[in-house]
Amino acid sequence: MDLIAGGVRHALGLLVGGDPEVWAILWLSLQVSGTATLAALALGVPLGVALALARFPGRTILVSAVNTGMGLPPVVVGLFVSLLLWRSGPLGGLEILYTPLAIVLAQAVIASPIVTGITLAAVQSVPEAFRLQLLGLGASRRQMVWVVLREARLPMLAAVMAGFGGVISEIGASMMVGGNIKGQTRTLTTAMVLETGRGNFEVAIALSLLLLVLVFAVNWALTTIQQRRSG
Amino acid sequence: MHRVLVPLLLLAVALPAGRAAAAGSTVVILSTTTSTQDSGLLDVLVPMFEKKTGYTVKTIAVGTGQALALAARGEADVTLAHAPAQEKRYVADGKLLNRRLVMSNDFVLAGPGDDPAGIRGERSAVAAFRKIAAAGARFVSRGDRSGTHGRELALWREAGITPSGPWYIESGQGMGATLGIADDRHAYTLSDRATLLAFGRRVRLPILVEGDRALLNIYSVMEVNPANGPRVNAAGGKAFADFMVSPETQAVIGRFGADRYGQPLFVPIAGKKDEDL
Fold it and tell me: Are the beta carbons of B77 and B230 closer than 8 angstroms?
């Protein structure tokens, strides 16, 4: 028990004391996972809408693939992104392995199916009769999609939360493509693994509390928007 | 939606892309074993090197097997490892160049205080391994092709034993996690002294066998052959290797850890040969 209490005290000390290294790690985690979520939205929302509204042969297979991708193991993504970005790999010339950009890329791959899948479900939850009615009233297809997205905005915010929550807490991909380099690619989760390996359990506990506070703060902000809009 | 998107966009813009696209020739990738990072030694040495030379070091701390494999593929520029037999094979194949000794410390055989196999005070590590196997006492192996795992397997080979059975547990994890499992399962394990010292507060595993020459743990630095792959930074790799064996660095290594553990964690040995030790 004294270890956990020590960890909590340590966390407060790190936050209040404004330890620059911890703040830098926190900020990097937020930037990397925020950017990855944004990229996943840019890719996943149009794809989710298209899959929800279009009817074509093989659609069921594609939807199943997206649903499988929602549970894509980060360590698998980490391995394949590493192989691509290796000096000897097809994208080696970019020289972005072991940089924050590489983590953004891997996390975007992890988050995209999550955003796509939830968007797909959100758009499909808007009754088809409503869509037909819009078209019947003379709306263009683009206008119809826009109105449907507005109707589905509450579950869409859930997509943002699920995507962000998934990537900020993942470890396998960040470790493999980022390399946990001090001052460059060390994120909250990889720092936690390192400190546990070093036997610095108080620091590891402190970092895990910071991660929880960060995820809570982001979700709280998004939920506030979600609930206000729905009222 | 844009109340959500705007802050996220701002985040994306703030992400310093410049840091990501550092020029290749100023970046040195060091592949190394977890023990050099977990001990905190590299946190001291890497900034010294960067300040002195202007290079930026990317330290990839993995098991020794993987560290050497990455270097042999040209995915790193220099490697710091502690598996002499494996290292010499890579050097013989021409994949790694100019193997130079940097520092040493030692492995110790730790285990439960009541010592069910009765190895306490045994001078020979091989004899102690035989006693553990004969007693069927639990032993936790790293099982991860790390330098420590390699040494453990060499000791079993020398003892003429193929370890298997319910008493032989493979953790597949780093030294810290393995010590935790050994403590929990009331088992023996082979550890480097630095990690055991770092975990002294958390595990109750006294050192039972130490001081045998077979337990010497030697770290060497090797440069990566530029022929191994595209974009190997040979000059940067050599600069880091030279730095590790320079007198100034060796003095820092010889003092490292004394303030925290009451004894230095490594002995500087640059300039010596394997036979001298």
Answer: no
